Amino acid sequence: MGRHRVSGMQLANLTGVSQNYIASRLRDESPFTVNDIENICKALGEDPGSLWAAAIQHLGEH
């Protein structure tokens, strides 16, 4: 979101979910689903496979 300079409200609009839905996940009150991640990647023009690969690499470094 930061790289794309997108707010939670904008992300909610782009993905077709409520602002409360996104906000609860950003506050770590509820988990993102795989579908959420795929929809967010699509909305931001990102490749989900690249995101997963970067996340796995990051986990391996810590």
From TrEMBL:
It comes from the Bacteria. Residues 10-51 form the HTH cro/C1-type domain. InterPro entries: Cro/C1-type_HTH (IPR001387), Lambda_DNA-bd_dom_sf (IPR010982). This is HTH cro/C1-type domain-containing protein. It comes from Pseudarthrobacter polychromogenes.
